C-alpha cells in the first residue's frame, strides 16, 4: 500500500488528515505509464495530478521516446501540431497539468 511522507497509509480519507488546503500529487505520467489506480484515487480525494515526463523518455538506446513514436507523429501531422503539443494536450484533456 502506498504511504504518505508521515507513514499515513495513502488510503486514509482526506477528511481524516485534516487537510484544509489543496493537495497535489506529482507522478510520472505519459501514455505508456498512466498509473490509473493513483489517478483514480487522486480524483476521488480531490488531489490534483501534476504529471511529469508527459513526453515520455527512452529507457534504453533501442527504445524510442513517446514523443517520437509513429502514432504520435501521425496525430501531430494530422492536426498541424508538434508531437509535444499532442502529448501535453492528452494530459490536459485527461484532467491534469504537466511539467
UniProtKB/TrEMBL annotation:
UniProt keyword list: NADP, Oxidoreductase
SUPFAM superfamilies documented for this protein: NAD(P)-linked oxidoreductase
Chain intervals for the UniProt region annotation (Disordered): 1-34
InterPro entries membership: AKR (IPR020471), NAD(P)_OxRdtase_dom_sf (IPR036812), NADP_OxRdtase_dom (IPR023210)
A Gene Ontology molecular function term of the record: oxidoreductase activity, acting on the CH-OH group of donors, NAD or NADP as acceptor
NADP in keyword set: yes
Keyword Ribonucleoprotein: no
Domain NADP-dependent oxidoreductase stretches: 25-93
Polar residues composition-biased segments: 19-32
Family that this chain belongs to: Belongs to the aldo/keto reductase family.
Protein name: NADP-dependent oxidoreductase domain-containing protein
Species this chain originates from: Jimgerdemannia flammicorona
Amino acid at each position: 500500500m502506498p504511504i504518505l511522507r508521515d507513514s499515513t497509509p495513502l488510503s486514509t480519507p482526506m477528511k481524516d488528515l485534516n487537510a484544509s488546503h489543496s493537495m497535489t500529487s506529482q507522478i510520472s505520467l505519459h501514455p505508456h505509464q498512466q498509473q490509473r489506480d493513483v489517478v483514480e484515487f487522486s480524483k476521488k480525494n480531490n488531489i490534483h495530478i501534476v504529471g511529469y515526463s508527459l513526453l515520455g523518455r527512452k529507457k534504453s538506446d533501442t527504445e524510442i521516446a513517446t514523443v517520437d513514436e509513429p502514432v504520435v507523429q501521425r496525430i501531430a501531422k494530422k492536426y498541424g501540431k508538434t508531437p509535444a503539443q499532442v502529448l501535453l494536450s492528452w494530459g490536459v484533456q485527461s484532467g491534469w497539468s504537466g511539467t
